[in-house]
Structure formats: C-alpha cells, structure tokens
Amino acid sequence: MADASLSRTPLYAEHVRLGAKLVPFAGWEMPIQYKGLVAEHTAVRERVGLFDVSHMGELHVTGAGALAAVDSLITNDLSKAENGQAVYTCCCNAGGTILDDLIVYRRAEDDVLVVCNASNRPKIAAHFRESLRGRAEFRDESDDTSLIAVQGPRALELLRLTGASLDPSTLRSFRFADGSVAGIKVTIARTGYTGEDGVELFCPNGGAAQLFRALLDAGAPLGVEAIGLGARDTLRLEARLSLYGNEIDETTNPIEAGLGWVVKLDKPAGFLGRDAIAKVKAEGPTRSLVGFEMVGRGIARHGYPLLSKSGEPVGICTSGGPSPTLGKSIGLGYLPVALAAIDSEFLVDCRGKSIEAKVVKPPFYKRKPASA
Fold first, then answer.
1. Which of 9, 70, 124, 221 has the fewest CB atoms found within 10 Å of its own CB?
2. β-bridge partners, 147
C-alpha cells in the first residue's frame, strides 16, 4: 500500500512502468533498483545510465545583490566563477560545521541557482531565505523542477542522438548552458555524482517524463539503463564522493572531511563559519576522513566501529560495501590523524568480528579521460 506521506517525482509513473523497486528516501518514494544493483552499476561504468534526481532542491536567488549574498553563505568563491560556471561547495553554520554540500550555478551576477540535497531542503531553504532577506530575492523552485542525470562513457553520445541543441562536449566540466534535448527546454550541466563523465538536465516538471522516455529510446542501441539509488551509492563511493548524513553533517567540518579544497579562507568578504574553519586549519584537525579497503574477509558498513590494532575504538565507518568495479570491499571512515596515513592498518568491527583493513589513497576508482 502506498505511503501517502511520501512525495513522488514527476517520473514516478516511469519507475513503475520499468518495474522499479521503490523505497522511502528523504521523504520521497524513489527507485532503489530496476534490474539489480550490479547490472546498473556496470551500465554506468561501461555505457550510460539515467538517474531521476528530481528530489533534489533547487533554490533560485536573483537581484542586484544575489552573487554577493550567496557567496557569504558558502565556503567556495563564487565571485571567481564565470557566468555559466558551477562550483561545488559547503554551506556551514557559524561553528564551521557543514549544513549541506551544494552545487551553486552562476547564471549571472544577479542570477544564481543553488542545488541542495533533498533531505536538507527545508533547512537550507529556511537558512537562505532568512539570511538573504533584504539582500536578494529568494524562490524555492524545487517543486516545479525536475532533474535527470545522464552518466557514463557514452553519455554525451546519447545526448547527440536525441538531437540536443548544443554539442555537450563544448561544455567543460562544471559548465552549463540552456538548450533543448529531444525538443524539451533544459539547462544542461556537465556535472554528476558517479565518477563518470556526463550531464545533468534541469527541466520543468511537465517535460520530465517525455525527456526520460526519449533518452531511454534514443539510448537503446548504446545499452542505456535506468539506474536506482543503490547503484548511485556504490558509484559515488568508488569515486570517493561524500554523502550528506554519512561522511558529512553538522558534526563535521570541511577540513577533516577532506573538503579543504572548496574552502577559500581568503575570500575578501568572508563567509559564515570562516573563523571557526580557519581555527581548525591552523591547529590541524584531530581526525581525518580516509578511504580504506578490507584486507580480511568482511564488509564494512555505515556505522561500524573502526578499531586500533589492539582493539581500541578509534573511529567510525561512514560508508562501505563491495565495489562492483574493483571486486573488493571498500569504505570511508574517520580515523585519528595519527592513524590516517596511507597504508596504515586498523580493524573494522563487523558485527563483533574484528577484520583487518588498511588505508588507501582515494578515489578508489578514476575514470578514463573524458569523452569528446
């Protein structure tokens, strides 16, 4: 029986038609898999896959003060981006811990799009609305916007087969432009969450189902597959991409999370949380997010304790599982800085069994050069 409390994306009927297994996720009824996690994961690594990510939040900030106002709430420096460029960033509180990780799209100095995680949309929307009051116009356009990710080595080829209005290879990484795909007006962004090349397509809800079907039809000769949340998670884990609620949350700061590269402490106007983060950087974090692989026979999972070689609790696994691409069990987790060096050995408490693991250099998987 359907849960009336769960929201559905405009592609819900498409998921049902394709036989997806639907599960609750961040308040939404979403596909966890269609044909199976490994098959879908492999499709993205080797060919091309389609993801419904319409549950994400889209927050639109406009007006003369838009760029400066948004820049004051994020750790990266939007002022140095060009029009038509997006930046990955953190949004922190005054204490320097992470409210959410975002992609912020600079359309113009007076026109900025902020994409946040579905689970954090109410929090981030309220944070931006209040912080921008009197400085810029704010609109939450999430309920009117659909988002489809096209990911994999044949993603750009698929877009060409739909008669896209622009050659997606002309967009560099984290660039975006308005256009059309399969006759549907879209914003095409060279972004993604899989470690593969590809794009994400924003469109009004009314065109989402037609666009999704057109991509599936055009991509049939390429071996396109619809991809669920299960494979999305294994793909992002192999690429060492953080997931809010796992690797990052309001108890973590960007420095210990390995996100110091998106923190621009020298931004002239500063940003919320700057002083707290600068203090952590100056003093050095006490723990560090590491990538690791299992040496013994065992699978690390979210929440499993990480132990020293002598069996003392020293950290926590934030994400883990078998890697379909690499054929080994991998994970991410926080360890004390003294134990976080590459090749450091430790133990994972896998349901009462202490299994050997070692720190490795992430990402676990790195794609071949981007397709043309």
1. 221
2. 202
What pLDDT is attached to residue 28?
A: 98
pLDDT at 372: 40
Write down the pTM of the prediction. Answer: 0.96
Q: What is the largest CA-CA distance in the chain?
A: 62
- How many other C-beta atoms are found inside a 10 Å radius of the C-beta of residue 122? 13
Q: Pick from 118, 87, 120: which is nearest to 104 by CA? A: 87
pLDDT at 3: 73
12-54+144-238 CATH choice from 3.30.1360.120, 3.30.43.10, 3.40.50.12780, 3.30.70.270: 3.30.1360.120
CATH 2.40.30.110 segments of the chain? 286-360
Closest CA to 262 of 77, 134, 56: 77
Cβ atoms of residues 256 and 220 within 8 Å:
no
- Measure the CA–CA gap between 286 and 98, rounded to whole angstroms: 17
- Of 146, 359, 140, give the one whose Cα is nearest residue 258: 359
Name the token pair of 291: 């990538």
DSSP result, 212-268 = HHHHHHHHGGGT-EEE-HHHHHHHHHHTT---BTTTBSTT--TTTTT-GGG--TT-T
Q: Strand, coil or helix: what is 201?
A: strand
Position 232: which residue type?
R
Q: How far apart are CA 332 and CA 166, in angstroms?
A: 38
**What pLDDT was estimated at residue 369?**
66
Q: Which residues of the chain have pLDDT under 50?
A: 1, 371-372
Q: How far is CA 159 from CA 152, 191, 214, 246, in A?
A: 12, 14, 10, 33
- 286-360: CATH topology is Elongation Factor Tu (Ef-tu); domain 3 (2.40.30)
CB 285 within 8 A of CB 253: yes
| Local structure of 199: helix, strand or coil | strand
pLDDT at 71: 98
Angstrom CA distances, 238 to 158, 232, 325, 372, stand at: 24, 10, 8, 23
**Residue matched to tokens 């405009």:** 10
In this structure, is the dihedral angle defined by the CA atoms of residues 168, 241, 267 and 133, taken in order, positive or negative?
A: positive
